[in-house]
């Protein structure tokens, strides 16, 4: 069974309000990678996972976790349900899932360390930090 981009968005939205927890992998607490893992798995996508990472920049490990299990997407059209990779300083260190808010504006659902929970924020808050756009493998 293939998941759809709409299913990805609906599942990601169901995580809004879940507390942030480094290495968290359930609704008691989740980090940005945990959000991607749980959303994907809930939509029937097989994902390898690890919590063996830190808050320090580890670009190779971060990219291995995400790039090896996703497909690249073009930036034209920024499709809700896509995975967005974000830099902090110069390193890829954060992820989210593109969505649309209640007003139809492009948004990013992410497990936000500073907000201490999963939130939906305007894409414009993140657009200058985007380094890559990806999709879960097999999403149609």
UniProtKB/TrEMBL annotation:
Gene3D superfamilies to which the protein is assigned, alphabetical: endopeptidase domain like (from Nostoc punctiforme)
InterPro entries found in the cross-reference section: NLP_P60_dom (IPR000064), Papain-like_cys_pep_sf (IPR038765)
Alphabetical keyword list: Hydrolase, Protease, Thiol protease
Biological process terms in GO annotation: proteolysis
Cited PROSITE patterns: NLPC_P60 (PS51935)
Gene Ontology terms for molecular function: cysteine-type peptidase activity
Domain NlpC/P60 positions: 2-137
Family indicated by similarity: Belongs to the peptidase C40 family.
Protein name (Swiss-Prot/TrEMBL): Cell wall-associated NlpC family hydrolase
Taxon lineage: Bacteria, Pseudomonadati, Pseudomonadota, Alphaproteobacteria, Hyphomicrobiales
